[in-house]
Amino acid sequence: MRSLPLPLALTARLLPVAVLAAAGWALAADPFTASPTAEHNPTQDNPTDTASAPSTTATAKKTYTASPAPCGGIPVASIKALVPGAKTAGQEIASTDKSLRRTCSWNALKDFDYRWLDVSYEIKDSDAAAQKAYKDRVDDKSGGGAVPGLGDSAYSVVNLTTEDKQQTREGVVIAQVSNALVVITYNGSDFETKKAPGTDEINKGAIKAAKDAVNTLKGGQKV
Question: Which of 38, 45, 68, 164 has the largest count of CB atoms under 10 Å?
Answer without folding.
Answer: 68
